[in-house]
Amino acid sequence: LAAMVYATHHISGGHLNPAITIALWSTKHIRGMHAIGYVVAQLIGGIVAALLVKMVFVGVSPQFYLGDAMLGTGVSIGMGIFVEALFTFFLVWTVFATVIDRRASPVIGGLSIGMVMATAILIAGNITMAALNPARSFGPAVVSSHWDYFYVYWVGPIIGALIAGFIYQYGILKKD
């Protein structure tokens, strides 16, 4: 993720996640048409990535679902939404603190974002697979036709992203 944020920052601002794009749009950091375009591109990117995974893992058991995010054993829908929201909150907070906030050094943005994602995967991987990104779940769901609990990976990340975005924008940035 860190490498892709750096690689795409000069093109799109590093927009790889609809939840982050929605948080940036809702706090007026990007315009509506740009946000729609980014989200559409992100969802298409998720589908293309799932198709590539399908090509690489030919003949893999259908239970694999091309890497679609799934809840861990015994994890409730509510807990899944909470975990996705919590870790997306940390991810979006990091985006605002290292990329949006002009007081921060933009050089560390991608690395910081990648480190938060790696930490989330280590902590929440067994709970929700730590998708934290609706496009990351959408692509495999479309290609494999596996839609179990797909809303967990939209609702949780968007709630977490909006909370982080609003708190940072109107609690930290607006104070200055």
In short:
This protein is mostly helical and 176 residues long. It is built from seven helices and no strands.
What features would you highlight for this structure?
single chain, 176 residues, mainly alpha, 69% helix
Characterization of this structure:
- With 176 residues, this protein is an all-alpha fold.
- Helices cover 69% and strands 0% of the residues.
- Helix 2 packs antiparallel against helix 3, helix 3 (32-56) crosses helix 6 (134-144) and helix 4 runs antiparallel to helix 5 (109-128).
- It is globular, with a radius of gyration of 16 Å.
- The mean pLDDT is 91.
- Average per-residue pLDDT, rounded, comes to 91
**Number of distinct beta strands:** 0
Give the terminus-to-terminus CA distance: 30 Å
Uncertain runs with pLDDT below 50, 5 residues or more?
none
What's the tally of helices?
Answer: 7
Largest sheet: none
The proportion of residues forming helix, as a percent range, comes to 55-70%
Strand content: under 5%
Q: Output the radius of gyration.
A: 16 Å
Q: Which class best fits the helix and strand makeup?
A: mainly alpha
Order of helices and strands: HHHHHHH
- State the shape: globular
Task: Annotate the secondary structure layout.
Blueprint: H1 2-12, H2 18-26, H3 32-56, H4 77-100, H5 109-128, H6 134-144, H7 152-173
